[in-house]
Amino acid sequence: MRSRIAIIILLIPYCLSAQLTAPGATSSRPTSYPSAPAVKDSVFVYCNQSGTQKGTLRAASPRGNAPFNFSWYRWNTLTKSFSIFIKSETGVSGSAISNLDEGGYRVTVSGGFDTTMTCWIVFDKPPVVEAKLRNPMKHCNYVALDGTAASSVASFPYYDPGTGNLLNLKNELTFLWSSNPFSAIPYASLDLDPITYDPPLVDVVYKFEVFTLGCSSFDTIDYRSIHVDADFTVDPMEGEAPLEITITDKSTRGYIYEWDFGDDSVSNLKDPLPHKYYKPGEYTVLLTVESERHCIDSLRSAIIKVEPSALAIPNVFTPDGDGYNDLFMVESKSLRYLSVEVFSRSGLKVYGFSGEDERLKDWTGWDGNINNSSIKAAPGVYFYIIRAFGWDDIRYDSKEYRGVVYLYR
Questions:
Q1: What kind of fold does domain 310-407 have according to CATH?
Q2: Quick one: pLDDT at residue 358?
Q3: Contact criterion met (CB below 8 Å) for 69 and 49
């Protein structure tokens, strides 16, 4: 129970001070009186940017029913008391005073509820601020910002009403770096001189804002980007040999290009021609770009997979025109050369094909007609001899590529 009473007593000064306001003040801070630590009056801070700023105070009774009587006083540094009378108002619900200079002010309220409220008015000035680059605009790997910030008013004076001693409220200084358009700035509100190792790829305006308790100032830097960004896409990323890929450049501020395809071939064109990989395996494309200001960036693609050679031979086909399994067609990947010969049981050659490159790509298989004529081969067993050579130098010409295929109609 005692602890709850203590909390209520400590909260009373805050409740009272909440009824004394200073329109136009930028911020406020509580007092710290050595003679009365529990008392927390308000120090109202104004920004006196023009040099002609004045303060205003408004008071309302924290409790009771109007009307009330208000009497205003100002702190007297000679008598060290609130002895300078300002004005009184009777029979009102609230009262205000304006055109106030820096100093302490007290208002007494009587009538339905009696209380005294105290506050201090102080004036701040805009802080000193300067923004510049620590490195000239020719460094490619980073941007080093340099901020200078200092408060014009180091502290604000007020007095301990119990002793009359002079006290000081230290001015607070904060800052913030930003950019437009947005560019990442590490520790933008913690480091006066931040360095970004992710330089912007577009021209930006860096802004350095400095805030004190009452005022703020800012300075800007017009930054012209010199940085380069290597970027591109590859399509397709896998397939059988020879695999032809198309590269689309998406780089920013590229001037000099070098494309390393990973197969002992390079290109210096901005938009390289389609490139073919003949040997099965895994490859990457490495792009290195340089800007006109000699900044360099590089990017390596994901792995491009060129499938190894393979050959699979069916043992039956049905050239009956139903659109399903109508052709004797070997399943193959990455073949450089293919030869197919088909013989009847009597040894008569009924079909033959050999080809490489484009001719091999256009091969559609044996349709079941004798030697590409309109004569249909009879159903039954046929013998084949297949020879092939893969782009990975694997030969397919052993006895396992000699066998039989069944033709059904």
A1: Immunoglobulin-like (2.60.40)
A2: 84
A3: no
